[in-house]
């Protein structure tokens, strides 16, 4: 199986540790992972902010770069949802672009989908002896319908204590450019999210999307809460050996 | 739509920035929306065929909208046959003039009103007042809003932003100006407040000769109108007065009674989280000597119908489920939206109906984090995030933002340029200020920036690939990366 890593521009630039964790994890599980070097960005920011033309250019680039792989794994529910759910709406039915999207989009998986649905593994042999709470993130929840997949994986991590998060399905207030276009509402939403996180008493807030984590984590750091953020991939990559 | 409450300059973000600081408002909204949220989920879960009902609701509305021309004519014919009179109103001005003329023709100077979004949309009460006619709201919450010289902030609970002590003050201070005064020893006990409103309104119902209503549904096959309500005030207004004028948006049509069955299940459960609402009134033409007039209101709807993505908004049955689940509405309340249609549906319906001419209307498509909770809750499956994104592509963008997005698009569309930009950021990572300047300060006002890493992922990959190819032992392969963020 030819597996490509779609790192996403945010992870590539700001959270390379997440990408390294995905590579480490998938190699441990016996996958040979390729990183198509020409990849850039899925175009979500542009499309969702109202710059459809730029977004469509990025989408075209994406479908060219990732053509021919059996599976494309992304450590971001939001970017995976962009390709799978929104790309088909950006193309003219019957066009060449539509054919390219129909070919590539269904092969894009969020990491937890790939592990559970494709590799059929729900215990990745990870060890992480910490108190963790999980924020499901909106697009993972309502676009990809990941459901229990991420928490199933976390429950099988040795030593990990998973503490349920109150109001888990509520948006953290990131929303891409929403965070700077409506900063007051975004901050108000995050204040409630942070309160829920702190109420769990967890040391680590985990999610399958670093964009949301950047928002919640940035707020928690500003408030000196001492709770750290970790992408799901990083917890799953952690083992007893190290 | 009446341009009555446009808020301050700066559009939705500015209105919202004020609203989120109002602790009373935040408390009221949080309590009300969370309560109704939980109840709605329970009411919906009771029906094993909810998703089928939802799909049927969507299909019926889509079919009706596709053949709206035919069904409207069928409705007109059926109402006329039943002794009613149908009037066609292109816009708010026409509708207001028609209603005013009809009221004047009766010789009356006052009308009682059934809660109606359409008449709020056209600013009917204000228009009637300018013509010397007083409109009395009879829904309890609308009464509170009217007496308080305030604006509704929710479809279903228009006074959601008020608490009971505020309502007591309003009743004590204002009821006398409008009719029977509140008892001087009125407390803020909810039953006492309801009693005061009941006595105040009862006199009005018995005295009024003309009523104005909206309509939840119109059934084309028989020319029947349908109103769902909880308090019985609607039933009073619809049956007691000698003249009844109903102002209804053209998208409210359903072809047959069979179709109504679907919506009588969808609406109450989505709206009040009830299996059935207390009062469902239906009437056809001029029953029992009542003079009946139906004003069919376009006011921008035909334009929305021409919008291939936006037209789904016309499926809306005004249940307010999307408001109750919206994390943005929960923090800002309805007034920030500057329209009778607040919340997620308002963020699409308002600009669809009246365009992007004001700063406020142009900002509404951005009044959402695109979390998708509204789409999930919508009983007629309006994909609100899809419409929001579509409207964002149509709304005029600011110069600075446009330039920034162009540059970002140029950098992101090429891996060499992206890698160069990343290396630039990496080289100057220590120089990034804690607080960013300009529009980006909106991020750093409340959040720390993430640390820029020493190396991008792509550079790490390239470097470790190279060392693998040159035969050296594989790099750490990403183990231990969790410490590096």
What does this structure look like?
Chain A: It holds the Pfam family CCG. Chain A: This is L-lactate dehydrogenase complex protein LldE. Chain A: InterPro entries: Cys_rich_dom. Chain A: One of its GO terms (cellular component) is cytosol. The complex is a heterodimer of chains A (242) and B (485). Chain A has 242 residues and is α/β, with parallel strands linked by helices. Chain A has 13 helices and 8 strands. A 4-stranded parallel β-sheet of chain A has the order 2-1-3-4, sandwiched between helices. The model of chain A has no long low-confidence stretch (mean pLDDT 97). The N terminus and C terminus of chain B are likely disordered. In chain B, the strands form 2 sheets. Chain B has a 6-stranded parallel β-sheet with strand order 1-10-7-4-2-3, sandwiched between helices. Chain B has a 4-stranded mixed β-sheet with strand order 8-5-6-9. Among the domains of chain B are: 253 residues, NagB/RpiA/CoA transferase-like (Rossmann fold, 3-Layer(aba) Sandwich); 86 residues, no CATH class. Chain B is of the alpha/beta class. The longest helix of chain B has 23 residues. Chain B has 23 helices and 10 strands. In chain B, 51% of the residues lie in helices and 10% in strands. The radius of gyration of chain B is 27 Å and the shape is globular. Chains A and B meet through helix 1, helix 2, helix 3, helix 4 and helix 8 of A and helix 1, helix 15, helix 18, helix 19 and helix 20 of B.
State the gist of this model.
The complex is a heterodimer of chains A (242) and B (485). With 242 residues, chain A is α/β, with parallel strands linked by helices.
Broad shape of chain B: globular
Task: Compute the separation of the termini of chain B in Å.
Answer: 51 Å
CATH-level-4 superfamily name of the domain at 47-299 in chain B: NagB/RpiA/CoA transferase-like
**Which structural class do the helices and strands of chain B define?**
alpha/beta
Strand content of chain B: 5-15%
Give the helix/strand class of chain A: alpha/beta
* Main sheet specs of chain A: 4 strands, parallel
Number of domains of chain A: 2
Mean pLDDT of chain B: 93
Shape of chain A: globular
The helix content of chain B is 40-55%
Number of helices of chain A: 13
Rg over CA atoms of chain A? 18 Å
- Highest CATH level, the class of the domain at 47-299 in chain B: Alpha Beta
Largest sheet of chain B: 6 strands, parallel
Strand neighbour order, sheet with most strands of chain A: 2-1-3-4
Domain 4Fe-4S ferredoxin-type (chain B): 313-382
InterPro entries (chain B): 4Fe4S_Fe-S-bd, 4Fe4S_Fe_S_CS, FTHF_cligase-like_sf, Helical_ferredxn, LUD_dom, LutB/LldF, LutB_C, NagB/RpiA_transferase-like
Domain Lactate utilization protein B C-terminal (chain B): 396-463
Keywords (chain B): 4Fe-4S, Electron transport, Iron, Iron-sulfur, Metal-binding, Repeat, Transport
